[in-house]
Amino acid sequence: MSCMSVLFCLCWWNLIGVFGESVSVMEGDSVTLNTDVTEIHENDDILWKFGADTSPIAEISREKQIFSTYDGTDERFRDRLKLDHQTGSLTIMNIRTTDSGLYKLDIVGVKWSSKTFSVSIYARLPVPNITRDCSSSSSSSSYCSLLCSVENVSHVTLSWYKGNSLLSSISVSDLSISLSLPLEVEYQDKNTYSCVLNNHISNQTRHINISKLCDTSSDQGLPLFYIVLIPSAAGSLLIVVSVVICCICRKCRKTEEDRTDSALCKPTTRKTKPKTEAIYGNVSKKR
Questions:
Q1: Domain 16-122 identical in fold to domain 129-215
Q2: The pLDDT of residue 5
Q3: Where would you find the membrane-spanning parts of this chain (predicted)?
Q4: Burial class (CB in 10 A: 0-12, 13-18, 19+), 276
Q5: Angstrom distance (rounded) from CA 192 to CA 132
Q6: Which pTM value belongs to this model?
Q7: How many whole angstroms separate alpha carbon 123 and alpha carbon 98?
């Protein structure tokens, strides 16, 4: 029995070394990966590594007086790493989604120990948007169709609540997709409804006012507005067209009258034959 216990403990220790400690953090925040060491011994060397990269991102050697952080091979950690000189714990500041992955700690000295951290970074959640779903036909005229939606989300759950009671939910693990969840409520429902978007470390909630969002008077007011507006606009347009036509006709009539008056007053000219004058020359008289 004791052998089985020892074997179980060894297996458990190996599993911890392989899978490590899980750490979840919000994008833009800071996270500290603890060594669980109160003080580094004089002969201890501490190395922090990220992912499959064999080059350290942080290093401590008391004997050599080395207390350094590095940017990484792709410089992803530039000016964002802080090392505790007493405990060797590593702090990542202004963390990004690209910082997700495995971080390995090696403590080499009188005793050798190793520890891994599986770091997951979650993007900040948007507040859900609730709209009246006009494309959906309600099962009854006394019901109002609502739609709660979010865009560009991953690893989240979208849920409808009535008070503190869960009504429905949908989860997604894909990257950057749009998510929506419908709900039908009665127009006269006085209960409190809310749509909640959450992941492992945070949530965003949107509460709704049923009487305001499902107000049918707003639907009736829009056609009535057009019923009044369209005849008024048509009448105004007809008046404008009539005035323009009247002005054109009056102008044409005046132009025609002016032409007639000009024709009557214009003097007439008669063609006259040119007078022929007799030309007398010196004629000799006969004797």
A1: yes
A2: 47
A3: 224-249
A4: exposed
A5: 16
A6: 0.60
A7: 11
Neighbours of 103 (CB within 10 A): 23
Model confidence pLDDT, tens digit, residues 81-123:
999 999 999 999 999 989 999 999 999 987 888 999 999 999 8
Residues 178/181/187/188 CA torsion (nearest 10 deg): -120
Provide the CA 29 distance to its chain's centre, in angstroms.
21
Token pair belonging to 45 = 């060397």
Domain covering 16-122, topology = Immunoglobulin-like (2.60.40)
CB 18, CB 112: distance < 8 Å: no
For the domain made up of 129-215, give the CATH fold. Immunoglobulin-like (2.60.40)
Residue 270 tokens, joined? 């008669």
pLDDT above 70: residue 186: yes
Q: Spell out the domain ranges in the chain.
A: 16-122, 129-215
Neighbouring residues of 3: CB distance < 8 A, sequence distance ≥ 6: none
